[in-house]
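Cont'd.
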Amino acid sequence: MRISTSTLFSEGVASMNQLQTSLARTQAQISTGRRILNPADDPAAAARATELNQADAANTQFAANRTAATNTLSLSESILGSVTSLLQDAQALTVQAGNATLNASDLRSIAGDLSGRLQELIGLANSTDGTGNFLFSGAQGRVQPFVETAAGVSYQGDDVQRLIQAPPRARSPAPIRVRTSSCASRTATARFKRRRIPPTRAAASSARGACWMPRNMPPTSTR
Amino acid sequence: MGSGIFGIGVSALKVAQAGIDVTAHNIANANTPGYSRQEIVQAALLPQNTGSGFFGQGADVTAVKRIYSEFLGAQLTEARTRASNLSTQFDLATQISNLLGDSNGGLSTSLQDFFSAANAVADTPESIPARQALLGSSQSLGNRLQTLDGRMSEIRDGLNGQISNSVTLINSYAKQVAALNDTIVRAQAQSGQTQVPNDLLDQRDELINQLSQEIRVTSIKQPDGSMDVFIGNGQSLVIGTQTATLQAAASLTDQSALEVVYVNNGGVSRIQQSALQGGNLGGFLAFRSEVLDPAQNALGRIAIGIADTFNQQHQQGIDLNGALGGAFFNAGTPQVAASSNNVGNATLSAAIGDSGALTGADYELRFDGASYTLFNAATNVAVQSFTVAQLATPQVVSGTGITLQRTAGSVADATGDAWRIRPTATGARDFTLAITDPAAIAAGNPVRANTPLTNLGNATISQPQVTGGLPLDANLQQPITLTFGAPPNTYTATGTGAPVGPQPYTPGATITINGWSTQISGAPVAGDTFSVGPNSNASTDGGNMLKLAQLQTANTLANGTTSYQGAYGQLIAQVGSQTRELDVTSQAQTSMLAQITRAQQSESGVNLDEEAANLLKFQQAYQAAAKAMAIAQTMFDSLLQLGG
């Protein structure tokens, strides 16, 4: 076959160009650390990569959501811990008050102690989360949930639970909601409130809101 | 005899000299594009009849011919038109593919940031900084969409310039071909149609090759030596010495897009753009209609989908001030353009009916004299027909997600009147944030349920959710009290919008009143009540924001089959595979072009070694001829000496 002189040159140049293109591509892959520099390199994988990126970002976000919930829950837990020890104190005082040898002045002193505990308890129940939002007031973070009234203490919050978006279960594709923070703690607080300061039926019904309470425990204290 | 030797010697000298001339010409043009090597056609002169036989009279050059194969030439032209077409499309598609797939510049990162910010608001709904961050990331999502769309529009504008340039080149080539036709016809006529001007033919073939790099042409050689050139569906570009011209003119229904129109003898005619194939120009047009438009529409569809679904959910919540949410994003609206050839002046308006059903296609509504039919602009398939009366009210076009309405003008529509509808073309461009006040983000649920402490039963009520959709029920936030009767197998709802009379109670069943739904389960006691009312002071309720955040993975687009990110992934995959296909076919075509070029060059190209050998060959022939003449001289001298 004849070879024209210009073909000799142009084919040599074309081969060099091709090799240089491959070289540049490999260098770009090395410097970016990515196999797919352009979706055209592998369209299906590129689309999949964007989905995985989103899943990754969503998981990071879910972790942040969980951290926020964990923070609120540990705060609630430490407050509930304080409430427990406070209750034990109050119980001890009550037992002490049952001693028949105590005179009026002793009893007055114990009553003073007990009412101090009550104030402390109301203080704990009105705890805030550090940004000024009440922990146990449901949706109304700026409304003080427990207010002392002549008839005892009334609850000003509501039944709304604070929810976050958390990751789906390992095999479930869709995100599910989980209950967090204030629900369990508010339940415990409410139970305590109802045991220690039994409001009258009228007082309770006049309260603007009511704390969510477990329905499997009939509110015997109101009877 | 003596004069015979001289005559033969002279003819041999002339032939050898012609050979050296042509060889030198080949060497000089070894690198001239389109040049075909030439050689002399040498033949023996008529022999002289003598009694003792025919004596040769020397040699003569009958022609100078170029070594050229019509077949390979045509293959080369076709290979060039394909190769330039594919590489043009590939280069352009790579830009779109890079734009969308860039891990930093694409839409994905902005979408993720946006939903992260939405989650942060759901975690801490009362936090103004979190809300401000959501507004900020919404703004950057809008900016990102606009940037992507803007870049595509830039590419579209650039295409207009390139189409104009290409059209100018085509016209210029056509004129040069016509001029060469003229010269070639004259030259051939001068030679009495016996010889051809090889170099001019090479120039014309090269011009047609260059022309075919711009657009696919068909060329037909005429007996007088001229070449006729046709484009598209047989429109003549060059006939003999006459040329038609192409022009770049704004599309009838889209002022921003240039189309190619055909001008012949002063008459302007529109030609079907899809008929202009091959070459750069065909590449520009194909890229615009097959890659750029669909990509921009798909991006617009995602933008409109995000805006519409997010807005719908946002309007079902309440903001920090307790007011119901408004629109969160402004979305683009369908673009409708009447053809500039329309006789009537009716106005057509289009609106988005169902953002989830949008397709990303463009449509054309055409009037056939009796009814209006909507066609898919890309496939030319009829979608739906309407009567005049139907179009007077908004008509839902099934399968497209849009509604159409026509307002009659003062001049009646004529057959052939058309309107182009681009539902999502500007979706990404017009995607903006509608609110600026962080407190106006509707993160909370509009209603909440409360259980009084006085209830004696263990029935519980779930928090009511808005299920009535938009428009919201007018009584949505009206206080409703549910009171259980005796025995507690019925309940009575009181309040505005409540159903009249006792309702049967089924534990766990959904109770829907005023556009919200809730469930009561457990065993109530007669007289137990539940109240549902406005979610006032709900600064820490992120119920609605949770639903907004869940839109990230909800299948809301393409008839509920894919999420925002999924739709974007589809767009990337679509553009990516188009680019990939162009890459592969373009590479294949380039190597095919190389093969054909090699074959054509092996036939017509100049090999300098060969020419050097030819030089020596003709030089020796020249020297030998000169020697023959020297011998004749010596013979003549000897003869003269005999006489002296």
